[in-house]
Amino acid sequence: MTAFDYDLFVIGGGSGGVRSARLAAALGKKVAIAEEFRYGGTCVIRGCVPKKLYVYASQFAEHFEDALGFGWSVGERRFDWQKLVAAKEQEITRLEGLYRKGLANAGAEILDTRAELVGPNEVRLSATGKTVSAERIVIAVGGHPSPHDALPGHELCITSNEAFDLDQLPKSILIAGGGYIAVEFANIFHGLGVETTLIYRGKEILSRFDQDLRRGLHAAMEEKGIRILCEDIIQSVSAGRDGRRIAATMKHGEIVTDQVMLALGRVPNTRSLGLETAGVKTDERGAIVVDAYSRTTAPGIFALGDVTDRVQLTPVAIHEAMCFIETEYKNNPTSPDHDLIATAVFSQPEIGTVGMAEDEAARRFAELEVYRAEFRPMRATLSGRKEKMIMKLLVNAADRKVVGAHILGHDAGEMAQLLGISLKAGCTKDDFDRTMAVHPTAAEELVTMYQPSYRLRNGERLP
Ligand SMILES: Cc1cc2nc3c(=O)[nH]c(=O)nc-3n(C[C@H](O)[C@H](O)[C@H](O)COP(=O)(O)OP(=O)(O)OC[C@H]3O[C@@H](n4cnc5c(N)ncnc54)[C@H](O)[C@@H]3O)c2cc1C
Question: Ligand 1 test: best mutation among 10, 42, 273, 347, most atoms within 8 Å of CB?
Fold first, then answer.
């Protein structure tokens, strides 16, 4: 008989929290989970899921155009933003219901309240003021978009949170940021017919991705009509008399626009969580410090997902939760594996990537072979669209292992998932070469690039 109210108390009903609570409850543990907003968390309510639905919506304009080349005549087109928002709301509500059902079926107690730590094993529930105790506590509270307080007029701007539910689709938008969220929203809004400008302080968008893809995507986005201003920042935002926003930029003067969206990073939800009282340390950014097993500095308290600022992706939060369960409840110490995470940017064209970017691989390996193909995909031939696809494999010449695979083009995200398996399995370039092509596909290029496009020795390109 435990001396605590619960075996496990989970704070946060997002990707990581729900998985922890559901699996522990299914193992017969007495579990409670608290969520202050909506079950499903960022991913389901205002992240991956609604984003991807909006990506689909935004692609139709091009589909209609492309259809002409294949013999179709498309009649009058009209887009209804309110209809999309309502349909999205219906879908995320359905998913939220499934999350709750999964928890209830496993036997977890579902609490709709904010929860804060008040001691090493104690949590206070804001809705009732009640304090409960638990043998173990998982903190999976995620993060929120940085409000960028230092920017004069930041309160006039929106973030990704608001972008999903705007009353009206703006005629124009200025998006600040160069990460995947900024880039994806720039493509979404542009596809829906919004005059879109992206402003980013760095030299090139998507800083941690392969240079080729970054440049290729930049060019493709500009070709579509998205204005991209690199090496520039917004210095202030004010409201004009007509209610529009006036953004003063450092290099490009004033930009008058309907909305300014800030996509300048995310901040862990650790404020007023009682971490100090419980002895849980955070880093300078407010992220919870954890060891290889997601243990915080306080015994019995664990943290996982975005709040720990390791890799901020849904499958990573879920994986960290599963490792926690293995370690704590199945006597099988398992630390999360953050190596070779395949990922996508749902830009248009899409990016799919796994492993090292060329710069990084060139620093790491004495000799690197680069296999690169840039071509017009078959679907663009009849449509007449100029878009190019880029595929790239990076191979460590010493052992022939493929250490990076990068794709820009349609369905790149889908391909990256499968490439993730190959790289994780340690496949060599020879394994790729002896794999039969699927024809006619764009992906067949991945197994038919027989000769390196170029080689790098000690980071220098060989003649
Ligand atoms: C616009 C956008 C697009 C994204 N797209 C992708 C994508 O395509 N692919 C991908 O893999 N990832 C994507 N992500 C990232 C992904 O959403 C996160 O990595 C993931 O949701 C992290 O899960 P989590 O459990 O750590 O936190 P969250 O999902 O953020 O869940 C935390 C929950 O805790 C709740 N909470 C916070 N404090 C408390 C408290 N004190 N008490 C009770 N509840 C509390 C919050 O309300 C929230 O519901 C995207 C994120 C954004 C913002």
Answer: 42
CA of 422 to the centre of ligand 1 (A): 28
CATH number, domain at 124?
A: 3.50.50.60
- Quick check: 228 and 221 in contact, CB under 8 A? yes
Cis peptide before 440 (omega within 30 of 0): yes
Distance 101 CA to ligand 1 centre (A): 19
Q: What is the pLDDT, as a whole number, of residue 22?
A: 98
Q: How far is the CA of 26 from the centre of ligand 1 (A)?
A: 23
Residue range(s) defining the domain that contains residue 371: 343-457
Taking all residues of the chain, what is their mean pLDDT, rounded to a whole number?
A: 97
Are 199 and 248 contained in the same domain? yes
Measured CA to CA, the distance from residue 92 to residue 326 in angstroms comes to: 30
For residue 307, which of 123, 181, 143, 144 has the smallest C-alpha distance?
Answer: 143
Q: Does residue 366 fall inside a structural domain?
A: yes
For 191-207, what is the mean pLDDT? 98
Pairing, β 172-176 against β 195-200: parallel
Is the minimum distance from the CB of 269 to ligand 1 under 6 angstroms?
A: yes
Report d(CA 265, CA 146) in Å as an integer: 6
Active site residue 439: yes
**DSSP structure string for 265-325:** -EEES-TTS-HHHHT--B-TTSPBP--TTSB-SSTTEEE-GGGG-S---HHHHHHHHHHHH
Q: What is the 3-state secondary structure (H, E, C) of 196-254?
A: EEEEECCCCCCCCCCHHHHHHHHHHHHHHCCEEEECCCEEEEEECCCCCEEEEECCCCE
Span 325-363, pLDDT tens digits: 999 999 999 999 999 999 999 999 999 999 999 999 999
Query: Does residue 20 have its Cβ closer than 6 Å to ligand 1?
Result: no
Both 137 and 275 in one domain: the answer is yes
* pLDDT at 414 (0 to 100): 98
Q: At what angle do helices 180-191 and 211-224 cross, to 10 degrees?
A: 20
Task: Tell me the CA–centroid distance for residue 14 and ligand 1, in Å.
Answer: 6
Q: Using CA positions, which residue lies closest to atom 45 of ligand 1?
A: 12
Residues 55 and 132 in one domain: yes
Asked if residue 260 and residue 117 are part of one domain, the reply reads: no
Which atom from ligand 1 is nearest to the alpha carbon of 306? 26
Confidence at 463, pLDDT banded by 50, 70, 90:
confident
Q: What are the two backbone dihedrals, phi and then psi, of residue 90, each rounded to the nearest 5 degrees?
A: -65, -45
User: What is the band of 197 on the pLDDT scale with cuts at 50, 70, 90?
Assistant: very high
Give strand pairing partners of 372. 392
Give the closest residue (by CA) to ligand 1 atom 7: 48
Distance in angstroms (rounded) separating the CA atoms of residues 253 and 195 = 17
Q: Tokens 């060891």 correspond to what residue?
A: 291
